[in-house]
């Protein structure tokens, strides 16, 4: 099923696949002809000392070598071009799926898991297609052709092979299930270790503060020991399997074949070269069986990565039905009896909240921590989809308005803005690609970022570091707010956008922002009380309405 899923996705490259497959099979040709040449050499060169036969064998060996080299070069060129194209397309497709995910669905995945699917799992696709499809088919083809050639050369010896060959499959199959269980156990332990390593930045302070270093070290040591134990068991199992196959193939089978060949030679006068060729072909068959078993074991390691890739490719996103804009606009927002509960929680965060917001209003949302302020902002930003109640945006259901249309009107700033390692100029121009340096410097001054003009001009060219590592928490927030002065969206959602800025500069920045968006609608939440904003804001810049959100279930 895994092969079918992946083949169906990459089947559009049919011509390249066919050419690559033929080149792969062609590389088996020298291996299949070598026993015949060896037998011919024994019967017609060593036995009869035929000079022409000698030069014929030498010429065929050189020809096969040149053919093999040509096929390998052609295979490598097509292989690189084809699989680079496939993995590139897969990464673009998976990235597109990430962008199409709803916030609810996206939050079900860990960021590290999404990164792994995009990088390591896609890389495993190439190993899967090469090692588990092409190599598997080519090896199976080589095994079948070797068997046919043995029957055509000497069917008496072929009967002996028909007796011994199934035993090799039986011996290899005995260990397959055991190896599969050990592989799954090792994979689980490695995943656990990976989670521990990924959580180090999150729990480091907690571990240090509570002096849990020894406990965490003991847990890590146990996981490491489990991984080593699984690997030892797996290697031991592989060794026992390979030892049995080696003893059977190198000793028992070889003795039986040479004994059968001797009997056939004595009874039917079969030439020594034919017998030697049959023995070599049987050795090829044993090698192919061993290689197929190794591929089956490898598939157990690759399968999870392929399943994770195909899961995203086959995931059917729900396509919402959008409403067309009607003539009736209504309120900017008409929030009716909204309730919301996160999947991992039993208690509702919002329970029956309602609010009407007129166009151009400046709203401050108050409420204690946990009352649902940020959840409401996520609903208004279409980061979450409401299921109970209704939110009308200018007379239309918010869930039935496309993101493309909605985000042309709405901009949201919170305390989780991501900062790429670009210069301040480049970061600001993400909002307006045509913004001049003069406008950028003016926007930075509106939030009192680098109050000294000379320093501000220097920072315009400076890179801010990955996720703003070169900036303080307050500077990062000011920079995110400064971008708002380069655009004039109709609606602005501010979710704790001033939490890292000191009180005086916060009110200064907010007043400038409200003035810039004086014709738009602004909805803001903050830990500060509304009266503090009104006290320090001028009459035309203060909030026009203060709405309080009570915790769900509060009276």
Order of strands across the main sheet: 6-7-8-3-9
The rounded Rg comes to 35 Å
Low-confidence stretches: 529-541
Helix amount: 55-70%
**How far apart are the first and last residues' alpha carbons, in Å?**
56 Å
How many E strands? 9
Strand content: 5-15%
Could you describe the 3D structure shown?
This protein has about 550 residues and is an alpha/beta fold. It is about 65% helix and about 10% strand. The chain contains 19 helices and nine strands. The strands form two sheets. A five-stranded parallel sheet has the order 6-7-8-3-9, with helices on one face. A four-stranded antiparallel sheet has the order 2-1-4-5, with helices on one face. Helix 3 packs antiparallel against helix 11 and helix 4 packs antiparallel against helix 6. The longest helix has about 55 residues. It is elongated and about 110 Å long. The two termini are about 55 Å apart.
List its salient traits.
single chain, elongated, five-stranded parallel sheet, 19 helices, 9 strands, 555 residues, alpha/beta, four-stranded antiparallel sheet
């Amino acid at each position: 099923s895994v092969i079918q899923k992946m083949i169906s996705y990459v089947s559009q490259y049919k011509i390249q696949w066919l050419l690559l497959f033929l080149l792969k099979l062609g590389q088996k040709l020298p291996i299949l002809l070598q026993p015949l040449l060896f037998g011919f050499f024994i019967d017609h060169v060593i036995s009869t000392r035929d000079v022409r036969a000698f030069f014929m064998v030498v010429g065929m060996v050189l020809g096969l070598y040149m053919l093999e080299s040509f096929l390998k070069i052609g295979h490598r060129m097509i292989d690189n071009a084809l699989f680079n194209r496939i993995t590139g397309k897969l990464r673009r497709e998976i990235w597109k799926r990430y962008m199409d995910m709803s916030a609810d669905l996206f939050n079900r995945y860990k960021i590290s898991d999404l990164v792994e699917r995009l990088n390591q799992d896609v890389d495993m696709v190439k190993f899967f297609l090469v090692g588990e499809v092409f190599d598997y088919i080519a090896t199976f083809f080589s095994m079948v052709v070797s068997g046919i050639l043995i029957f055509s050369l000497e069917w008496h010896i072929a009967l002996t092979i028909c007796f011994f060959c199934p035993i090799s499959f039986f011996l290899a199959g005995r260990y397959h299930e055991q190896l599969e269980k050990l592989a799954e156990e090792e994979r689980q332990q490695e995943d656990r270790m990976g989670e521990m390593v990924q959580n180090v930045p999150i729990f480091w302070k907690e571990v240090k503060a509570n002096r849990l270093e020894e406990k965490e070290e003991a847990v890590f040591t146990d996981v490491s020991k489990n991984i080593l134990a699984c690997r030892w068991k797996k290697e031991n199992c592989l060794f026992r399997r390979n030892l049995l196959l080696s003893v059977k193939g190198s000793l028992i089978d070889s003795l039986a074949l040479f004994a059968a060949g001797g009997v056939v030679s004595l009874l039917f006068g079969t030439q020594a070269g034919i017998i030697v060729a049959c023995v070599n072909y049987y050795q090829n068959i044993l090698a192919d069986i061993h290689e197929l078993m190794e591929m089956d074991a490898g598939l157990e390691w690759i399968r999870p990565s392929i399943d994770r890739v195909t899961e995203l490719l086959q995931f059917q996103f729900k396509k919402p039905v959008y409403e067309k804009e009607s003539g009736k606009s209504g309120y900017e927002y008409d929030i009716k009896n909204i309730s919301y509960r996160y999947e991992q929680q039993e208690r509702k965060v919002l329970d029956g909240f309602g609010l009407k917001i007129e166009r151009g209003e400046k709203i401050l949302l108050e409420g204690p921590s946990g009352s649902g302020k940020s959840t409401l902002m996520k609903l208004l930003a279409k980061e979450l989809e409401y299921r109970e109640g209704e939110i009308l945006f200018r007379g239309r259901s918010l869930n039935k308005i496309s993101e493309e249309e909605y985000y042309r009107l709405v901009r949201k700033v919170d305390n989780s803005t991501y900062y790429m390692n670009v210069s301040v100029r480049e970061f600001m121009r993400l909002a307006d690609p045509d913004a001049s340096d003069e406008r950028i410097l003016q926007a930075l001054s509106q939030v009192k970022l680098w109050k000294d003009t000379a320093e501000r001009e220097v920072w315009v060219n400076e890179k801010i570091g990955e996720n703003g590592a070169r900036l303080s928490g307050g500077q990062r927030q000011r920079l995110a707010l400064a971008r708002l002065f380069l655009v004039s969206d109709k609606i602005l959602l501010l979710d704790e956008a001033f939490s890292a800025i000191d009180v005086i500069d916060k009110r200064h920045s907010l007043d400038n922002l409200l003035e810039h968006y004086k014709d738009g609608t602004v909805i803001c939440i903050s830990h500060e009380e509304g009266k503090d904003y009104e006290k320090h804001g001028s009459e035309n810049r203060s909030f026009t309405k203060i709405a309080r959100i009570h915790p769900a279930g509060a009276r």
